[in-house]
Amino acid sequence: MSNPLRQVFNKDRTFRPKKKFEPGTQRFELHKMAQASLNAGLDLKVAVQLPPGEELNDWVAVHVVDFFNRINLIYGTIADSCTDQSCPVMSGGPKYEYRWQDEKSRKPTALSAPQYMNLLMDWIEVQINNEDLFPTNVGTPFQKNFLKSVKKILSRLFRVFVHVYIHHFDRIAQMGSEAHVNTCYKHFYYFVTEFGLIDTKELEPLKEMTSRICH
Fold first, then answer.
1. Selection from 66, 91, 211 nearest residue 150 by Cα
2. Position with higher pLDDT, 103 vs 179
3. Model-level pTM?
4. Residue 99 belongs to what H/E stretch?
5. What is the separation of C-alpha 173 from the centre of its chain, rounded to a whole number of angstroms?
6. What are 66-96's pLDDT values in tens digits?
7. How many angstroms separate the CA atoms of 46 and 126, rounded?
8. In Å, how far are 45, 169, 171, 193 from 41, measured between CA atoms?
9. Which ranges of the chain would DSSP assign to H, the alpha helix?
10. Do 152 and 127 meet the contact criterion of CB atoms below 8 Å apart?
C-alpha cells in the first residue's frame, strides 16, 4: 500500500471506530460481495446495482455502514487542518452553509465544521447501532421508515464530501490521495443516484466536479 493510502487507512487517524459486520450473517455476506465487486475492478455503476434475489433494504444497510466507515476515514485524514479557526462555519464554499439540527436541537444551529462533524458522526453512529433501525438478526424486518432515515443519513454524509472537496482538497492532493477519495466519491454518488437516496438539490454544490469525474 502506498504511503498516502497508509495515511488514509491509518487507524490512529480514523475519526470514529469502524462499524463491522458479524461474520456468518447475511449482512456480512453482502458486504463481502460488495467488496469483491470493488476489488475486482468492476465498473462502479454496475457494482452498486442490487444483486439478483437480494433485498433492497439489506443492500442499502450494508452500503450505508460502509460509506460511514469510508467517509469517516477520509475526514480523519484532514481533521487536523479542519479547526474552529480555519473552518468557523460548516460550509461548502460561499453559497452553501449547513446548520445542525437533531432531536435535541430543534432549531438549525450554526456551528464550526469540526463541531458539526463531531455531532454528525455521533448521530450516525447512534442510528446504525440502533437494532430497530438497522436490524442485524436475519429475519428481523426493517422499519417502514428505514429508507426515509437512510436518506437523511446519506444527505448529511454527502455534506462531508462537499466540505472536504471545497475547503480541504489541497490537503488530500498533498498526500497524493485524490484518486482514492475520488473513487470513494464516485462509488457513493452512483449508489445514491441508482436508488434515488439523495434529493438532486443536495447534490448541487459538487455538480460541476461530479460531471467531470462521474461520466
1. 66
2. 179
3. 0.84
4. none
5. 20
6. 899 899 989 998 999 999 999 999 999 999 9
7. 31
8. 11, 25, 27, 20
9. 3-9, 26-39, 44-47, 56-78, 113-128, 146-174, 178-194, 207-213
10. no
Let me know how long the chain is. Answer: 215
* CB-CB contact of 8 with 59 (8 Å): no
Residue in the block written with cell 489541497: 170
Retrieve residue 125's grid coordinates.
453512529
- The closest alpha carbon to 189, from 154, 165, 163, belongs to 154
Collapse the DSSP code of 100 into the 3-class scheme (helix H, G, I; strand E, B; otherwise coil) and give the result.
strand
- In the numeric block, which cell numbers belong to residue 27? 449482512
Which regions of the chain does DSSP assign to beta strands (E)? none
pLDDT digits (tens, 9 = 90+) for 115-153: 999 999 999 999 999 989 998 776 789 999 999 999 999
Residue tagged 469540526 (cell numbers):
114
CA–CA separation, 31 and 79 (whole Å): 27
